Amino acid sequence: MPADYAAIAHAARALRSNAAEIDPLPPPAAALLAATPGRRPDVRRLRIKQHAVLRAKVVPDINTTLAEAEITWEDAHRCAEAITAAIALGLNTIVEDALDHMFADVVAPALKAVGDPLEAPLPTGLLELAKAEGSPVRKALVALLSAKPHPGHVPTLMSLAHDQWSASYRRYEEEDHFPIAHEAIEALAALPSLPDDDLERLDTLAIETTDPKLRNDVFGLLVTHGGRAMQERLVDRACSPGLPAVQRAAAHALVLKSDSLDAAVVAEIEAATVATRMPSVAASLVLITAYRGQSEFVIELARYLAARPKRRVLVLLAIWLTREERPEVAEKLEALLPKGHAAIAWLRSGPATIADDELVKDLGDPAVCQEVLSWLNPKEEKT
User: Fold this and answer.
1) Cis bond leading into 41, ω under 30°?
2) Largest pairwise CA distance in the chain
3) Distance of alpha carbon 269 from alpha carbon 196, whole angstroms
4) Fewer beta carbons within 10 Å, N or C terminal of the chain?
5) pLDDT, tens digit (0-9, with 9 covering 90-100), for 272-294
């Protein structure tokens, strides 16, 4: 077989075997392939895969592949290759037309190629792709919006924040995970402010979602963007009867975003509330108070807790957060616990070692002790 034909045959075999990389044809073989009519799908596909050397000569192959596709896996794959070639060759008209294609794996890269060079806000036609059935399109759109923050994108991001696409089916007792919604919330959080109506909708989303991490992220956004009124609502939600998962998430968000809390919200935390709420909420309220509260307020709360045998272990959290920035406060807090208690020496060490319930069992209820240790124990590094 002549060398030029052998090179084409070798490339065709590699294509049929779905090789990750296909070497560019040498010029004589490329010229021979370019002169071969692309009447058959396999020939068109080979020519498209050689677009780097055939250049404009593959335009008819790309057009035909995209236009004559049927709903089959093979055609979906060929069309994805065709749009990749069109983007690489800068065939803007073809790429823009592909935004209406039947296959999501064609529309998604076309959307990225069209949207990347545009300034925010993106045109309405692109934003409407949030309604596309194919998840790759919505994933491509939310990635674009994340890279181009603009208030004009809020309605689209709000829609995507409710997206329930998941990469896999939930198995028994597994938690839901909605990645498109997650990225939409991150994009919304990157904006300086959000309309009150949207904050209310997000609050409802956080309560109703079956994705725990999404709930956490939304509550965090509400702390940073919702102002005092929303922050007070989250404190009330954490402390009022309701779904434990929602209570814990609200409290945790208040801790993680405590730098954004209004000082008045911190000052409204009541010692009696801390002493009577579920361990995770109580611990969160102590952490917020110790980090953001006035020194006398922190000492007053700790004194109240130290007088209650089932809750005095919470004082360790206040000592932990004040010992470096406000050592004089930490010293007064230490005096509220049994003199020479081993837990105080452990705290002064870092804490550098992982402690168990034995260290603190005389300082409170087992559930509260376990919660406190979950915050204080050094985190094991993942390998």
Assistant:
1) no
2) 94
3) 25
4) C
5) 999 999 999 999 999 999 999 99
- Cis, peptide link before residue 121, omega less than 30° from 0: yes
> How far does CA 118 lie from the centroid of its chain?
24
Per-residue pLDDT of 287-315, as tens digits, reads: 999 999 999 999 999 999 999 999 999 99
DSSP 3-state of 225: helix
Contacts of 335 (CB under 8 A, 6+ apart): none
Tokens of 131: 């309604």
pTM (two decimals): 0.90
The pLDDT assigned to 382 comes to: 47
pLDDT tens digits for 160-183? 999 999 987 666 667 899 999 999
Long-range contacts of the stretch 85-93 (C-beta < 8 A, 24+): 85/48, 85/49, 85/51, 85/58, 86/62, 87/113, 88/51, 88/52, 89/51, 89/55, 89/56, 89/58, 89/59, 91/59, 91/62
Q: Which helix (H) or strand (E) holds 366?
A: helix 366-376
Cα–Cα distance, 91 to 188 (Å, whole number):
33
What is the DSSP code string of 136-164? HHHHHHHHHHHHS--GGGHHHHHHHHT--
Residues comprising the chain, all counted:
383
